[in-house]
Amino acid sequence: MPRVGMTADRLTQAAAELADEIGFANVTVSALARHFGVKDASLYSHIKNAKDLRARVAAQALTELADQVATNMAGRSGKDALAAFANSYRDYATQHPGRYAAMQQDLDADGPAAAPARRHADLTRSILHAYNLTPEAQIDAIRLLGATLHGYITLELQGSYRHTPRPSQSSWQVALTALHTLLTNWPED
Amino acid sequence: MPRVGMTADRLTQAAAELADEIGFANVTVSALARHFGVKDASLYSHIKNAKDLRARVAAQALTELADQVATNMAGRSGKDALAAFANSYRDYATQHPGRYAAMQQDLDADGPAAAPARRHADLTRSILHAYNLTPEAQIDAIRLLGATLHGYITLELQGSYRHTPRPSQSSWQVALTALHTLLTNWPED
DNA sequence: GGTAGTATCCTAGACCCTCTAGGCAAACCG
DNA sequence: CGGTTTGCCTAGAGGGTCTAGGATACTACC
């Protein structure tokens, strides 16, 4: 029995790729073992259990995405930063639907995904610097922004916009413009 | 062996209640059979398979929610209608998280949930009557509205807003006001 | 290069969930 | 009241999760 050379990281990477191919819900310990030509039980030396595997995939995806967001936002501010931020999310979700789905699970506050999740919160806040908001307005704005983008991407990925002639790209542009206008003229009270 | 008197509808109803109690993901044929004090195999005379069961729960939830939305929106228009619509969704999701999760699955276009899903599309469109939009703007508005509300509710339910002092209710009100303002002053082009 | 130790992968097996096939009996219906 | 339907059953195959414990490929040290 030659050793395959599995490590937690290689398993996570393979699981992430598998998620994009067959859907995150179908990423099982068994499927992953099959992919490596190995018995199920062998994986449990590297991962705690199935939930742990999924959390690792989520952590990896969150890190990748945060890197892309940070890169694309570099040197931009205001509307450009907003667009870069939003488009990074949407593009990532389109290119890696399985990984994006992985990020949506209930992830434990002490799991491997906790640290990268905080990075996302910071990146989101950084967009709002240009828009001079009071601390409370900032919280509302973050929530609204996150909700809108996440909601749009989820529904688009789910296929909700496919049965209407108008291209999703147009609606997306309109949404971004609307968010920018809203942030610029945030209701005082 | 006394007969329990299961029907597809009673199973669906019980599955919906179970979903709210233990989470939609944990609603299995086995769990449902246990709940009725019956063997797993017995359920398959009433439902096609596990997927069918879940689709039925989704259909039931969609119908219930559409009824509530329609009731709460009756006689209202403009901002009142928008608020009634949005709050109906949010309240339903809060009171019935399992059922709300059921609605988010990929549901086949020919499954039991197809008809109620169309009702929701119609109800959403009816909100926009008051806001005089061009046909294309209407599509963009529906998408943006749906995305924002769905995104907000999903994130709130997921607990994303629990670790910040500001009450979610305040942010929700701000979001509704912002949506109303946006719809009232929809960007011409 | 031999040997001791460790990490990797294995077999075996328990448990849960899904679903099919076929049997028996309760309920209904003429 | 006897026949048919239908509801629930047992039996069992197949797949996923996970633990315990055994065997072997590698590593490191003498």
Polypeptide structure, described:
The structure is a homodimer of 189-residue chains. Chain A is mainly α and 189 residues long. The first copy, chain A, is elongated. The mean pLDDT of chain A is 93. Chain A starts with 7 loop residues before the first helix and ends in a 5-residue tail after the last helix. Helix content of chain A is 67%, strand content 0%. In chain A, α3 packs antiparallel against α4 and α7 runs antiparallel to α8. The interface between A and B is medium-sized, with 33 and 33 residues. Chain A binds a DNA duplex (30 and 30 nucleotides) through residues 1-6, 28-31, 38-42, 44-46, 49-50.
Short description:
Chain A has helices at 8-22, 29-36, 50-73, 78-95, 97-103, 114-127, 135-158, 168-184.
Please outline the helices and strands.
The structure is a homodimer of 189-residue chains.
Chain A: H1 8-22, H2 29-36, H3 50-73, H4 78-95, H5 97-103, H6 114-127, H7 135-158, H8 168-184
Chain A binds a DNA duplex (30 and 30 nucleotides) through residues 1-6, 28-31, 38-42, 44-46, 49-50.
Question: Which properties best describe this structure?
Answer:
homodimer, 189 residues, mainly alpha, 8 helices, DNA-binding, transcription (chains A, B), HTH-type_TetR-like_transc_reg (chains A, B), transcription regulation (chains A, B), TetR-like C-terminal domain-containing protein (chains A, B), Tet_transcr_reg_TetR-rel_C_sf (chains A, B)
